[in-house]
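Example 3.2
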Amino acid sequence: MLTKLKTSPNDTKNLFRNLLLLKHLLKKVRLNETLSLDLTLGSGQVFRWRKIDDSWLGPIKGSAVLLRCNKNVLEFRSNPELKEDDIRWFFMLDLDYRRVLDTFPKDQITQSIMKKYNGLRIVRQEPWDCFIAYIISSGISIIAIESVLDRLSASSSSICENDYCIRLIPQPNELLNMKRPTAKFLGRKWTYLVDFAKRIVNGSLDFEVIRKQSYQDAWSALLYGKSHIKGIGPKVADCVLLFAFEKMEAFPIDRWVFRGLAKYYPSLIDVNPKKTGLTVKGYERVSEKARNYFGHYAGIYQEFLFEHMRSGSDLS
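Structure, written as tokens:
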């Protein structure tokens, strides 16, 4: 949750002037590849990031972080203070995207979409935060997800950077001890969050076990096995495996990606593209075909396709 601390209307100009001054005091991370903060942090893969002027403010590893890209330099300021390695970790700057993108199919559509959204990267997310966001996400818009996360975090501790504060998502014990905001808040998703928190606290769900599994084993375990979590379906399982566990072959298929596959890659669709959803078996078949076609880093291309379809633009 991002809130502005109390200031009078006359303080607004001073606040943004201070932000501008801060930009000259930021630490610097040298970039070897293009990074677009707008595409990456505004793509819907990660939540609770806000654009302020030409900078972005959000949480990384429990710190409030202000970020700005200046050509081949990523500038940042954080509170509590983070190291350059933490920023590199978040943006996966250890992953050579030029090599990754070169593994994708050479067809005109794929190459055009990659070129159009050059600078979009997958970010690493903390598993707890990622699970919470995506359990909530089912069936609602990105704006609604942000709103629910803000409300869920309203009573949590906050971290601040230059008069702006972010409230952290409550940790497992905090969630179990907090009062439900309203009697019907989140409906049955609330019970899913509570059950998930209980399993983390009692140790019956171990993130490190998921991390060490192969993609297919981890996906199956989340849906059917020992790692199963109430409220996790095939798409949400793929989202958390991609964004929190670096299973790069995970290929989340929501309505935007399904429409993109139907429009640009009809040979990968063996179900009626006019249907509004996929059965689990149908999802598995389409996912397998997509992973086979796009390769080990299929999840990265999925984010390119998702962004393109959500933008509503055409390929030039």
